[in-house]
């Protein structure tokens, strides 16, 4: 397969940068503002003339196969651009956002990408370069999703284009929800929790919330999509705003997370809500504990007093019969 980039001159009417940038999926970085046009873009090359733009690469094959695709680099500026290409592993940051490995591929799917001699591409002004690349899936690769990205770098700016790579074989969709806790107070109350993808495919989870108060039922929240794509083997720490949390109650929370193909996962937590400031809530809690302690101390003292109180002594005066004990074997 030829590895030299195919260069195509683009005319002035096609030099609007915004539509090109909209097709690029940046991992862990916001899109460039229109006033700060970087002058070049990277995106998957169209599969055929006239085909719609692809927002990412999707490749599938069995272990031991070599897959092929093409990257389009477009220089919309009036000067030459020198773009360096590399493969990278994709992962979730702790907050759930997608990111790529900063120091290249760390032995996962990113290291399977190869650009041959075209890792550095010189793009003349107002020109589009189409660069082929290969993905060599190792023979011992596990089935399921292997997230990766093509990273293009020029003058300190990086653009990462997602590579959805699936290796054939049995797939498992499974997730758990852990470490549920309530934080904050009033309108700033949030429910913190951790999601863990325990399967081998990427998941798009939904969260439902049920709250049961001692002073009455609280409104439940129907399942809604979470703004996160949970990659295989990853865990993310998320928070759910709860601005309508009760001011005074003890609440039992049940969080239920679902995802296509996965069994629902649930987790519970209990939380006290007391009115007033933090100092007031702390004082009220200490007062309640003090009252409980005082009651327990009084109960112990009463029980001890009952055990130590002497019983009534027998009377030997009138009206009391004292039995006469007869000694056997003695003469009268």
Total strands: the figure is 20
Mean pLDDT: 79
Q: Could you list the spans in which at least 5 consecutive residues all have pLDDT below 50? A: 1-35, 277-293, 314-332
- CATH fold-type name of the largest domain: Immunoglobulin-like
Query: Beta-strand percentage?
Result: 35-45%
Tally of alpha and pi helices = 2
**CATH class value of the largest domain:** Mainly Beta
Tally of domains? 2
Shape: elongated
The rounded distance between the terminal residues' Cα atoms is 135 Å
Description:
There is one protein chain. By secondary structure, this protein is mainly beta. It folds into 2 domains: 6-167, Immunoglobulins (Immunoglobulin-like), CATH 2.60.40; 175-273, Immunoglobulin-like, CATH 2.60.40. The protein contains 2 helices and 20 strands. The chain has helices at 17-22, 278-308, and strands at 6-9, 40-44, 57-61, 66-75, 81-92, 98-100, 113-114, 120-123, 127-136, 144-145, 148-154, 157-167, 175-183, 190-197, 206-213, 216-217, 221-225, 235-241, 249-259, 262-273. The longest helix has 31 residues, at 278-308. Residues 1-35, 277-293 and 314-332 have low confidence and may be disordered.
Which characteristics define this entry?
5-stranded antiparallel beta sheet, disordered C terminus, 332 residues, 2 helices, 2 domains, 7-stranded mixed beta sheet, mainly beta, 20 strands, disordered N terminus, elongated, Immunoglobulin-like
